[in-house]
Design goal:
Layout: H1 3-44, H2 54-62, H3 67-77, H4 84-100, H5 108-114, H6 123-137, H7 148-175, H8 181-192, H9 207-224, E1 227-232, E2 235-236, E3 250-253, E4 271-272, E5 275-276, E6 279-284, H10 289-303, H11 322-338
Antiparallel strand pairs: 1-3, 1-6, 2-5, 4-5
Helix pairs in contact: 1-7, 1-8, 1-9, 2-3, 3-4, 4-11, 5-7, 6-7, 7-8, 9-10, 9-11
Keywords: Membrane, Transmembrane, Transmembrane helix
């Protein structure tokens, strides 16, 4: 029995524990702190209904400061996808993360566990790899909950499944009578180069810093959720004390990037005899002064400047406008870049 493949099998539990201790658990604790502060601010502003299970995947998608969380987010997005333009932001940064670690294959989850062994051409080993990765590739229905326990168990399950995958493949290599000792040794070398066998060192992730970035990403998501398209049908003049009170007026969320050329714009109603023609406008919810203050505080700490600017007016103030929608999308992209690793051993928060 080649010593190298035996060493690979022996090291699997150690690598699993290192990914949990150095990445999985710090992310869960950072998420827990971010969610607690976010929920507290929303409660003070009486908007606690904005907390949702989507935040779990959202946090992993935007704050992908390690290759583990990048593959976790990639797998999770298939199950609980958010808005299209947010997916575009997250996936663009995830792809850059994988480019850094040279995982170019479409199946990033299997690449994390198996590395170059995933591309092994030998038919018998291909079958073993396929069987081992099936449970990682299939998306199962997740229980919808935004709690830290939910996040912790899902991250822990993901690490365990990767360990199981490696174990099954390594056992198959070790027991395969058709592989020579040299071939087994070469495959063991490939496994040892996979991300699973190269966890970052302890204390790579600064949890307080990561928590602030995750919390700010929650607020940016809330800002991007705050716009609605209001369509006002044609109506009699006498029936119009205000747009919103017109019978038949509809309001729908805008599931589109605020920078898109297709983003809706206001249209003026055409004057008609005794009536007003149809029109539309964009309405943006005000998150409230408490939430705006918290956003400004976090944005100053992370980017050295407030998020909002004074818009003037009779009483001044900082309402959310289309400018803030655009900025929120850009801030999310900046957060994703800020936590993207430069290499396996350089996980920044």
């Amino acid at each position: 029995m080649p010593d190298r493949i035996a060493r690979v099998i022996r090291d699997i539990p150690l690598k699993q524990n290192l990914w949990s201790a150095n990445v999985g658990n710090p992310y869960v604790r950072a998420y827990d702190l971010a969610y607690e502060r976010y929920h507290k601010t929303l409660k003070l502003q009486d908007q606690s209904d904005k907390a949702s299970a989507e935040l779990l995947v959202f946090a992993a998608s935007v704050a992908t400061g390690s290759v583990l969380m990048a593959v976790f987010a990639t797998a999770s997005l298939r199950v609980l996808a958010g808005r299209l333009f947010l997916d575009a932001i997250c996936n663009r940064e995830l792809d850059r993360t994988f480019a850094v670690v040279h995982a170019f294959a479409n199946n990033k989850t299997a690449q994390f566990a198996l590395g170059a062994v995933f591309d092994e051409s030998k038919e018998q080993l291909k079958k073993r790899v396929t069987i081992a990765t099936t449970q990682l590739l299939q998306s199962s229905q997740m229980a919808a909950s935004s709690t830290s326990i939910n996040y912790m168990t899902r991250v822990d399950d993901f690490i365990r499944k990767n360990a199981i995958c490696v174990q099954m493949v390594a056992n198959g290599i070790q027991d395969d009578p058709n592989l020579s000792a040299e071939e087994k040794d070469a495959l063991a070398v490939k496994l040892q180069k996979a991300p699973f066998f190269n966890p970052p060192p302890a204390n790579s992730i600064q949890e307080e810093s990561l928590a602030k970035k995750i919390e700010l990403s929650f607020y940016m998501s809330a800002i991007l959720d705050s716009d609605h398209l209001v369509k006002v049908p044609a109506h009699a003049v006498a029936a119009t004390p205000g747009f919103s009170s017109v019978v038949g007026a509809t309001e729908t969320p805008i599931d589109m990037s605020p920078r898109s050329p297709l983003y809706p714009v206001a249209t003026q109603p055409k004057a008609m005899l005794g009536a007003v023609g149809a029109s539309q406008y964009v309405a943006i919810d005000d998150l409230g002064s408490g939430i705006r203050d918290r956003i400004d505080k976090l944005h100053r700490e992370i980017f050295k400047a407030p998020f909002y600017v004074e818009h003037g007016g009779l009483f001044g103030g900082k309402p959310t406008t289309h400018r803030e929608l655009v900025k929120a999308e850009l801030v999310l992209s900046q957060i994703a870049k800020a936590v993207r690793p430069q290499s396996f051993m350089d996980v920044r928060s």
